[in-house]
């Protein structure tokens, strides 16, 4: 089961509608599909969805790493996947999304060789996970329409993007909360607020009894002090996303008592750091959610297998394949909000 080759292919995906988060609008996304080939011809799949905004990655630059990485992992046996993971840890700072794709492709090749799905190699804690779906920033009418559609599709958690303007953000969430009963919200400001704005926003949620599960990344990634102040002033759990990329970031967040939740994304951390973050947060009593970053079918599959295998997450935000056009789930079955990982 030795690694012989590594192939990269660029794939472009269009969003169903422009995806608008705080200070950023996306209409399409270029990802890299990874094929890791073993000596017997078995192919393991992975997907890198790079992010300049979050990781400082450039898709064009990481595409050039194919030769260098193949040199490092060639002839390693995928049964010894921790050896491959360790080599790839060198790319935490430069190309975390590619690290994730190749680490998953390694497990996937191993999985195919032994006819056992990846989520069982990772521990098999759950047979399925339940994902939320995201409402991006838009007009009040659009927001209510999109949230209703998500509720009707069977999702029990709705993720709402905020972070550009407190007043209209509050109005949008309250309008949705008036229309829909029986759901919880993950509210994500994507670093868009100041500390004072975040406290104003979350106070409005509390006064209006909005069932907020997590208030995610209210302030800039580096502002651990702001997170801490908001955590102390908020009746709802506060989560880190952009602040929590590597296991070292999460160790600092825990030490500083800055958050109640961490949003793990394989595209920020790879599988190796994600595994470490799960254990650190479990030990520290910090809650976990898992998110995505414009991955298509294979990329979301990576996270579905990771989440089901470890069983570590309270919230699953694995909806990017639903936000992109013409994406079929690969490696999992989607039934309403449930995602069942399968051998693929
Ligand atoms: Mg987020």
Automatic annotation (TrEMBL):
Q: How is the cofactor bound?
A: Binds 1 Mg(2+) ion per subunit.
Residue numbers annotated as active site: 161, 265
Q: Give the InterPro entries listed for this entry.
A: Dipeptide_epimerase, Enolase-like_C_sf, Enolase-like_N, Enolase_C-like, Mandelate_racemase_C, Mandelate_racemase_N_dom, MR_MLE-like
Any one GO MF term held by the record is: racemase and epimerase activity, acting on amino acids and derivatives
List, separated by semicolons, the cofactors it needs. Answer: Mg(2+)
Q: Which residues form the Mandelate racemase/muconate lactonizing enzyme C-terminal domain?
A: 140-237
Q: List keywords of the entry alphabetically.
A: Isomerase, Magnesium, Metal-binding
User: Please, which domain of life does this record's source organism belong to?
Assistant: Bacteria
Instruction: Give me the residues that bind Mg(2+), please.
Output: 188, 216, 241
SUPFAM superfamilies with a match to the protein in the record: Enolase C-terminal domain-like, Enolase N-terminal domain-like
UniProt xrefs under PANTHER family: O-SUCCINYLBENZOATE SYNTHASE, O-SUCCINYLBENZOATE SYNTHASE-RELATED
Family assignment? Belongs to the mandelate racemase/muconate lactonizing enzyme family.
The protein, known as: Dipeptide epimerase
């Amino acid at each position: 089961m030795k690694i012989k080759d590594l192939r990269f292919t660029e794939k472009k995906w269009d969003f169903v509608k422009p995806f608008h988060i705080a200070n950023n609008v996306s209409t399409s996304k270029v990802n890299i599909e990874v094929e890791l080939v073993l000596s017997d011809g078995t192919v393991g799949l992975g997907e890198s969805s790079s992010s300049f905004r979050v990781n400082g990655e450039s898709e064009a630059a990481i595409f050039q790493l194919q030769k260098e990485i193949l040199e490092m992992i060639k002839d390693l046996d995928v049964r010894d996947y921790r050896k491959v993971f360790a080599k790839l840890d060198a790319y935490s700072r430069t190309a975390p999304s590619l690290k994730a794709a190749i680490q998953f492709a390694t497990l996937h090749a191993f999985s195919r060789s032994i006819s056992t799905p990846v989520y069982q190699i990772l521990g098999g804690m759950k047979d399925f996970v339940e994902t939320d779906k995201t409402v991006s920033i838009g007009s009040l009418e659009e927001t209510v329409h999109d949230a209703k559609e998500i509720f009707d599709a069977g999702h029990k958690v709705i993720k709402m993007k905020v972070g550009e303007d407190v007043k209209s953000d509050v109005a949008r969430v309250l309008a949705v909360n008036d229309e829909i009963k029986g759901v919880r919200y993950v509210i994500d400001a994507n670093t868009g607020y100041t500390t004072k704005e975040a406290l104003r926003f979350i106070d409005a949620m509390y006064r209006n009894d909005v069932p907020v599960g997590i208030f995610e990344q209210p302030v800039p990634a580096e502002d651990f002090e702001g997170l801490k102040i908001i955590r102390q002033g908020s009746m709802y759990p506060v989560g880190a996303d952009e602040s929590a990329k590597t296991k070292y970031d999460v160790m600092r967040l825990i030490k500083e008592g800055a958050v109640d939740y961490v949003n793990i994304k394989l595209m920020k951390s790879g599988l190796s750091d994600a595994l470490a973050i799960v254990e650190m947060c479990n030990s520290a009593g910090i809650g976990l959610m898992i998110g995505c970053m414009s991955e298509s079918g294979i990329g979301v599959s990576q996270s579905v297998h990771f989440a089901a295998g470890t069983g570590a997450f309270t919230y699953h935000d694995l909806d990017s394949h639903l936000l992109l056009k013409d994406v079929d789930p690969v490696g999992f079955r989607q039934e309403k909000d449930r995602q069942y990982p399968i051998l693929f």
